[in-house]
Structures are given as C-alpha cells and as structure tokens.
C-alpha cells in the first residue's frame, strides 16, 4: 500500500467538500437516479449530460416509467448524447428491474453487475454512493490522477494496467465514506487534474505528486496507440414526394446507431459523383423501390462526422418522386423519430422539413 494513502484520501475529501459542484444527483441516494446519472456521464462531460439527466428524470421519474416507455421515445430523448447503446441498455435494464426484480434495485456491487450495460465502474459508483460499499471506481479521471500522483507508467488500456489501477484504487478508498471518496476522486480529475495544462503549481498534491516532481505530467497516463480510424462514405437518399412524404429506415444491424432512423443509405468506397453513384448496386436496389423523377446533390462538400473509431463523410441527395406508398412518413412527423445528430442537423437546416 502506498505510504501516503491516508494523506491522499484525507486531502482529497477535504478538497471535495470545499469545492464540489452542486449537482442534482448529489442530493439523493436513490439508486435509480444515481444509476441514470452514471450511465449518462460515461464518456460525456457533466455540462453536456446534465440537461439530458433533467429531461429523463422529468419524463421518467421512476424505473417503472422508464420501463413502460417505448424504446423509440427513450432514444428520441437521448438524441444528441451519442453512444446510443447506453440508452438501449438502460431501457433493457429498466425492464429487468421493473419486471423481474419488481422494482427493487440491486443493493450490492455483485448484483448490480447483472444489469445490462453496467460494468465495474458503474456498479462500484452505485454501490459506494447508495449502499456505502467500499468499491473503488476507475474511469478516465481516476486513471489520470492516480497515474500522476503515484507515478504509474503502466498503460491504462492494457490488461496489466487495468488490473494495477483497480488494485491501487481499491487500496486507497476510504472504507468509512467510500461514496464521498469516489466522487471526490472523479471530481478532482474532471476539474483540476485535467488532461492538458493542469495548474500543478497550485495543486493540493504538488509536493507529493511523482509526475510533477519528475516533469512527467504531460506524459501520464500512458495509453497504447488506438487502432486506425476508418473512413466511411455515406450517401443519404432524401426522398421527397409530391404528397409531402419521405422515407426513413431503422438501423437494426449491429454497429453504429442501432435502432435509430435514417434516410435510405448507400455507402460507397469514396466520394462519388452522381454518375458513379448510379452505378452502385445499392443505388440500383434503391431505384427499384421508388420511381425517381429528379435527383440533385444537396451538399457538394461532405459533412464530416467523427466517431471514436471511424470518420463519416456524408452527402445528402435530394430525390424527387411522384408518390410514396404506405411506408412513407409525412414531413410533419419526421421530428418525432430518433435519428443520429448528423441527420438531425440536416433535418433542422433543410427548409422542407422545418415546421
């Protein structure tokens, strides 16, 4: 166990109690609301997640309300927050809690892991905050603080690194007030021991921080190189009928944006001209479904949408048709469908779809 364990936890908790942000989920120990906040804040800044949390609590005040809601409604409220598997897992877990557990939220770390979408970090957070169970959280903020203060150079995204940091975090946790300690550590990493240009000279740990003493702050934590970013080229067919209807398809396969809606999509290996697009097999299949009267490219310059491991280059083709059969959606209803932000931005800008 590190020599300055007691100093570290006491200093950290004191800092937190004096500097913590007043956030709605810190005013309750209701596991439903803590769970909701923790899922939303995964890979999301507090400033971005807070409005979504408030909307969800208002729409679904209990786990029963969330379980009873249609998935389409849940995804629509989540729209813009990204990583949509979180919303699908949240909804599935709500069903499990509501139906199988009769609304009784799991009350310990081990049982919390049975919830879909809940891993070590989320289970540790809920167990420590709601049930005072000494389970240490380890997320990006925690990796950063611990690697710098204790000089740990093991890559955080390696198997050995994940094990080492979890063990260190568990050794450091305050068993008497684990929830407060965990929140203090995450808050300190999010607001003070930030990724770039932290104010080390004024840091509460600067006289004990190994990274500061050895001038390694910018080098820690160590992370193995990510896999190469994949480029994908999307051609969206925005169908417009004389009867003011369009087409949306639901993405059902595995991959990005599962269960969200989008315009008919033709993916190409590069940016293509209209002539090249019409030669693609996907376009031939699309043209068999609708009787195209006219087609024009909406945006000459592709909209670049960056995801964690892929960059999407999107172009929107406006396709005029005389009519659409029963599968069509009225222009006036398109805003009711959960779509990726990439499409929502287009829908908001495109005059035909504006209310």
TrEMBL record:
Database matches in SUPFAM superfamilies: DNA-glycosylase, Nudix
Please list the residue ranges annotated as the HhH-GPD domain: 40-191
Tell me the GO BP annotations in alphabetical order: base-excision repair; mismatch repair
Give the main EC class: hydrolase
Cite a single Pfam family from the UniProt record: HHH
Cofactor dependence is on: [4Fe-4S] cluster
Arranged from A to Z, the UniProt key words for this protein are: 4Fe-4S, DNA damage, DNA repair, Glycosidase, Hydrolase, Iron, Iron-sulfur, Metal-binding
Q: Which GO terms describe its molecular function?
A: 4 iron, 4 sulfur cluster binding; 8-oxo-7,8-dihydroguanine DNA N-glycosylase activity; adenine/guanine mispair binding; metal ion binding; oxidized purine DNA binding; purine-specific mismatch base pair DNA N-glycosylase activity
Catalytic activity annotation: Hydrolyzes free adenine bases from 7,8-dihydro-8-oxoguanine:adenine mismatched double-stranded DNA, leaving an apurinic site
| Record text on cofactor binding | Binds 1 [4Fe-4S] cluster.
EC number from the UniProt entry: 3.2.2.31
Q: Does the keyword Transit peptide apply?
A: no
The answer to whether UniProt assigns keyword DNA repair to this entry is yes
Q: Which InterPro entries match?
A: A/G_AdeGlyc_MutY, DNA_glycosylase, Endonuclease3_FeS-loop_motif, HhH-GPD_domain, HhH_base_excis_C, HhH_motif, MIG/MutY, MutY_C
Give the family per the record.
Belongs to the Nth/MutY family.
PANTHER family for the chain = ADENINE DNA GLYCOSYLASE (PTHR42944:SF1)
The entry's function note states: Adenine glycosylase active on G-A mispairs. MutY also corrects error-prone DNA synthesis past GO lesions which are due to the oxidatively damaged form of guanine: 7,8-dihydro-8-oxoguanine (8-oxo-dGTP).
Protein's name in the database: Adenine DNA glycosylase
Q: Which organism is it from?
A: Marixanthomonas spongiae
Name the gene for this chain: mutY
């Amino acid at each position: 166990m590190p020599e300055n364990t007691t100093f570290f936890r006491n200093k950290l908790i004191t800092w937190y109690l004096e500097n913590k942000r007043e956030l709605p989920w810190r005013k309750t120990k209701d596991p439903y609301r803590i769970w909701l906040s923790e899922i939303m804040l995964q890979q999301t800044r507090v400033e971005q997640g807070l409005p979504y949390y408030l909307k969800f609590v208002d729409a679904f005040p209990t786990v029963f309300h969330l379980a009873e809601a249609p998935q389409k409604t849940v995804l629509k409220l989540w729209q813009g927050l990204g990583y949509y598997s979180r919303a699908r897992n949240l909804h599935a877990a709500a069903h499990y809690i509501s139906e199988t557990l009769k609304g009784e939220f799991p009350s310990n770390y081990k049982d919390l892991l049975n919830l879909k979408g809940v891993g070590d970090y989320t289970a540790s957070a809920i167990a420590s905050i709601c049930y005072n169970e000494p389970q240490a959280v380890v997320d990006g903020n925690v990796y950063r603080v611990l690697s710098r203060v204790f000089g740990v150079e093991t890559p955080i995204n390696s198997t050995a690194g994940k094990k080492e940091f979890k063990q260190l975090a568990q050794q450091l946790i305050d068993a008497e007030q684990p929830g407060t300690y965990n929140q203090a550590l995450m808050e300190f990493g999010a607001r003070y021991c930030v990724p770039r240009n932290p104010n080390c000279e004024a840091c509460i740990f600067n006289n004990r921080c190994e990274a500061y003493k050895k001038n390694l702050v910018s080098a820690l934590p160590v992370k193995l190189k990510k896999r190469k970013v994949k480029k994908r080229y999307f051609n969206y067919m925005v169908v417009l009928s004389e009867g003011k209807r369009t087409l949306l398809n639901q993405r059902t396969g595995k991959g990005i944006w599962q269960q969200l809606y989008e315009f008919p999509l033709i993916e190409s290996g590069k940016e293509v001209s209209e002539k090249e697009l019409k030669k693609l097999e996907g376009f031939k299949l699309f043209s068999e479904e609708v009787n195209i009267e006219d087609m024009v490219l909406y945006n000459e310059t592709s909209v670049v949408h960056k995801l964690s491991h892929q960059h999407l280059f999107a172009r929107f083709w406006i396709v005029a048709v005389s009519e659409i059969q029963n599968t069509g959606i009225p222009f006036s209803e398109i805003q009711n469908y959960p779509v990726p932000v990439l499409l929502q931005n287009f829908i908001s800008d495109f005059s035909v779809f504006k209310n």
